[in-house]
């Protein structure tokens, strides 16, 4: 069994680590990737799209840093596919921050997005960023179209050469076969030649079929355009569509076909103008599990909830709101800041009335499971980054540890009281020291006392890094199991969205309600 396999990692009596190599193997064994509990992003996109192909859009690295660009590009494509699959146009971005994901979803994919953040300052910043982004959006779109057209022309130029090579190869094979078939009068070389443009052979029947195909394709394209335009116009108020009068459009002098063409052209122009308008609305509100979205969003309709790196309990609350509200048809949430999660059993307090960030699923609740702050802090570490040489800031972590000892020993502040200052930077330490008015000699004495243990601290932190995926998978599976326990969920899963080196918190919890076709 698995327990027998890793039974010798720790000493049975002292509970101390005795086999570091086996410890690393055990940690790897219980990671998300090794347990096989995640759904590949490619498989999910194929299931959502069916036979439809993905769209080529604007590259986000023109107005975001590399990390944020990678996250927004991948997640926005998935959100758009889920929205199309569920037949919805409204998206609620929880913990939207500066609106990177929200603005891109609205401008690139024409989704109506409400971004909700608890900070009024951040919301104002999102408004300003969105204003500037809209100003340059046309240029981004033009550049993207030019790039797509350039790629299309390159492929078109390469295609005739490849076609000629293919035709030549096929003809050579067929000519070799011809010698053995010459005694059959009904078989000719022309019968065996492929319908290739380089053979110069084209029958009237194939020409007619081509015309029929082109006409059918044109009709299909016009139908799709009409559907897209009407879908966009659905979000407009009733008086936003201009009524065509006979005096302005000369209806009496136009045939029905021309009228329809002009009408479609006008609708297309309005749709284009709408796409450039602001369909992203930043809002300020603190989201809890009891939040009524209809109190925040007055025109709430069938929608999906998204969250890109929702901190602490916000991820858990997002999932609870999703399961409770029938109008929310899907959710796609990437959590972060596990150390900020509230735990029901951490302080041995049993408060059924209070909503906790962990655990969520009934199984872990029945077990009274507790991670503890140290384990949750470990889950925030980035093993993949360390593996490629992006090491932990051991020196600053050492200074932080020395500061904790000083505050405890000199000022009597307990360890639990210090948890809220664990993110203080090294620069802030000097400010704290000056504020406390400690003599330099006292500080240096503590430094000299503990500096020989810096390597010990580094080794300890490396063990925490190795353990990080195990703690993270526990938190993620707790959220997934919570969704599996709900009766109204048609499908739910963990999906790895991002490159973990670029974005360590790379797993999304995704679910669709039973009303959808999943």
What does the main sheet amount to?
A: 8 strands, mixed
Q: Main sheet: which strands, in order across?
A: 1-7-8-6-5-2-3-4
User: Mind telling me the C-alpha Rg?
Assistant: 31 Å
- Average pLDDT figure: 76
What would the principal axes of the Cα set say about the shape? globular
- Series of secondary-structure elements, N-terminal to C-terminal: HHHEHHEHEHHHHHEHEHEHHHHHHHEE
Helical stretch tally: 20
Helical content class = 40-55%
The N- and C-terminal alpha carbons lie at a distance of 36 Å
List unreliable stretches of 5+ residues. 167-212, 214-219, 221-251, 423-427
Fraction in beta strands: 5-15%
Protein name: MET25 protein
Pfam family, one: Methyltransf_32
InterPro entries: Methyltranfer_dom (IPR025714), METTL25 (IPR052220), SAM-dependent_MTases_sf (IPR029063)
Domain Methyltransferase: 67-344
Please give a quick description of this structure.
By secondary structure, the protein is of the alpha/beta class.
Structural topology:
Blueprint: H1 2-5, H2 20-29, H3 32-35, E1 38-39, H4 41-49, H5 66-86, E2 90-94, H6 100-109, E3 112-117, H7 120-178, H8 189-192, H9 204-233, H10 246-249, H11 256-276, E4 280-284, H12 293-296, E5 303-311, H13 313-324, E6 328-336, H14 362-367, H15 373-379, H16 383-387, H17 394-411, H18 426-436, H19 440-450, H20 454-484, E7 489-496, E8 507-513
Parallel strand pairs: 1-7, 2-3, 2-5, 3-4, 5-6
Antiparallel strand pairs: 6-8, 7-8
Helix pairs in contact: 5-6, 9-11, 15-20, 17-19, 17-20
